[in-house]
Design a protein that fits this description.
With about 230 residues, the protein is α/β, with parallel strands linked by helices. The chain has 11 helices and 5 strands. Helix 8 crosses helix 11 and helix 9 packs across helix 10.
C-alpha cells in the first residue's frame, strides 16, 4: 500500500527537508504541501491523503485548529503533529482533537518514516512512557478540572465492566498482549473490546482512551487495580 502524505509547515526549509526525507521511502507518496492550516481541510478533500504531518505553530491558522477541523470530518486522514516540545499542553489539545500522536522535529529521519507507517496502519505514535510523561508534565500531576473529570466519568459509565477494565489497562500503557495476560483474555478478544470502547465513546485511537480514563481519575490506583 502506498501511503499518501500531506505535509503542513510554515517553514519552507522544514517542508523541503521532510519532502526529501519521506519522499525517498518506496511506500510513501508526498501528495501535497501547505504553509498554513487555513487550506488544509480543502487540500485534504482534493488530495485524499492517508496521513497529514502537521506543524503546531503557524502564523495564521495553527495546526491545532486545523487538526480539530480536519478530524471532525467524516473519513478524515490521520494526523501526526510536529513539535519542538516533549510535553506541551498544545500537544495534549491536539491529541484530544484526534491526532494520532506526535513527533519531535529533531527526530531521526528513520523514526519519522516509521511513525508515518505506523499511523497509516492505525497505531498511535506515542509510547507508554511518553504518554505518562505528557500527562504528568501537562497536568502537573494534578487531577483533571472538575467539569472535565465529571464529563469523563459520565462517558466511561457507558462501558460494560470488561470494557472499562480494558480501557484502564490501555490508559496504563499496556499493549494488547499485556492486557490479554493481565485480564485472562485472548488477544483477539482484547482487540474487540478496544474497538467497542472506541465506538461507544466516539474516540479515534488508544491515545484518546488513555486521556479519557486519566481525566476520569481511573489511573490513580496501583498498577494492578483496574477497578
Amino acid at each position: 500500500m502506498t501511503i499518501r502524505l500531506l505535509i503542513v509547515d510554515d517553514d519552507p526549509l522544514v517542508r523541503a527537508g521532510l519532502t526529501f526525507m519521506l519522499g525517498g521511502a518506496d511506500d510513501i507518496e508526498i501528495v501535497g504541501e501547505a504553509a498554513d492550516g487555513s487550506g488544509v481541510a480543502q487540500l485534504a478533500l482534493e488530495l485524499r491523503p492517508d496521513v497529514v504531518l502537521m506543524d503546531i505553530r503557524m502564523p495564521h491558522v495553527d495546526g491545532l485548529t486545523a487538526t480539530e477541523t480536519l478530524r471532525a470530518r467524516p473519513d478524515a486522514p490521520e494526523v501526526i503533529v510536529l513539535t519542538t516540545f516533549h510535553a506541551d499542553e498544545q500537544v495534549l489539545r491536539a491529541l484530544r482533537a484526534g491526532a494520532a500522536g506526535f513527533v519531535l522535529k529533531d527526530t531521526p529521519p528513520a523514526e519519522i518514516v516509521a511513525s508515518v507507517r505506523r499511523v497509516a496502519q492505525g497505531d498511535p505514535v506515542l509510547s507508554p512512557a511518553v504518554m505518562r510523561q505528557l500527562m504528568t508534565q501537562v497536568s502537573g500531576g494534578a487531577a483533571a478540572p472538575r467539569d472535565r473529570a465529571a464529563r469523563a466519568r459520565e462517558r466511561v459509565a457507558l462501558l460494560a465492566e470488561r470494557e472499562r477494565e480494558v480501557a484502564v489497562a490501555v490508559g496504563r500503557g499496556h499493549s494488547n498482549a499485556e492486557i490479554s495476560a493481565r485480564l485472562y483474555l485472548s488477544v483477539p478478544t482484547v482487540k474487540t473490546h478496544v474497538s467497542r470502547v472506541l465506538a461507544k465513546l466516539g474516540l479515534n485511537n488508544r491515545v484518546q482512551i488513555a486521556l479519557l480514563v486519566h481525566d476520569a481519575g481511573l489511573l490513580d490506583g496501583p498498577d494492578g487495580d483496574v477497578g
